[in-house]
Amino acid sequence: MGLLKKVFVQTRKPEGVLGKMMISGMNKGHAKVADWGLSHLQTIAPSEMLEVGCGGGRNARALMKKYPSAKMTAIDYSDTSVATTKAYNADMIEKGRCEVRHGDVSALDLESDKYDLATAFETIYFWPGLEKCFSNVARVLKPGGTFMIVNESDGTDKASSYYESMIEGMKCHKAEDIVDALKSAGFSSVKTDVHASKPWITVLAKK
């Protein structure tokens, strides 16, 4: 495997030195699209939040800043991501506002009907079966809870095909496929927004 491909593979499950480098790059490189996604959260006031695929922990922190009275549970199936997120949010963990744990969305071991808001930034590309994973997220949300998905690719841009060829198991989903999977998973209302000048997409689904 070439060096470039080894680096790209780290986006799926960061590990080791390359994984740490990738996570650091994600925190910085994905900040603009994450903040654009967060701007869509205007009408909710969550008390319990879940960040699925927390990466380097930057977005978990941004959510806690946006909602200063809410508690955060951040999960990732990468041990490197879990460790990085814990370090990035050490003060919030000490204050009792943040819990970071190892977790897999395809086998989500969390309490049912607990969270007001669940988020997934730049991660559903790697989820093994959208409908099943979305159903798991729906189970842990409270009735009326919100699930927000933010992706840099809406599945129609040229870069999508390139990254899919470089990263095994990656799939850049189109908006209609995400919507169909969410509705099949039991979400009652789904709205999408594509950025005016970029292939960024935000999806908001209500349980």
Please provide the count of β strands: 7
How many separate domains?
A: 1
End-to-end Cα distance, whole Å, is 42 Å
**Low-confidence region ranges:** 1-10
CATH topology value: Rossmann fold
Indicate the proportion of strand residues: 15-25%
- Biggest sheet: strands, sense, closure? 7 strands, mixed
Strand pairing plus helix content: what structural class? alpha/beta
**Global mean pLDDT:** 89
Which characteristics define this entry?
single chain, 207 residues, alpha/beta, seven-stranded mixed beta sheet, globular
Question: What's this, in brief?
Answer:
Helices cover 40% and strands 22% of the residues. By secondary structure, the protein is of the alpha/beta class.
